[in-house]
Amino acid sequence: MRIGSLSSRSSKFKEYTDTMAAINRETEALNGQLQRVRSFQDERFYFSDVLRELSFIAPDGLWLTELKSGKEATESIHSFVMTGRARYNHAVAGLILALERSRFFKNIFLNFSRESAGAGESLQEFEITADLKR
Known about the structure:
Layout: H1 2-43, H2 47-57, E1 62-69, E2 79-86, H3 89-101, E3 105-118, E4 121-132
Antiparallel strand pairs: 1-2, 2-4, 3-4
């Protein structure tokens, strides 16, 4: 009778340990999913913050005419291509310097800067590529 009781308790104990092992596996899987969600949150940025930054750092006499981001613009989803016009070369150089100092951008590259005539005055057209800091 005592052996039967021990055997019964042993099978109950095995059920409990199997249940606990399943719960632990599920907990580990959920923790892995939670880590992935947290890493996505750490890498996100608010486009409105980037636009506000651009509006603050753009020098006088410089206008951004087009802003493309992500796969639409480059191979990387974390890149921007900025196209614009400026009255002077030093305004384009000032924008590049400001982008390098910005908390949002890295790997700034001037794709081109060329003179263009328009509306009776000479302007500099330019295109800049920059990556977002993550």
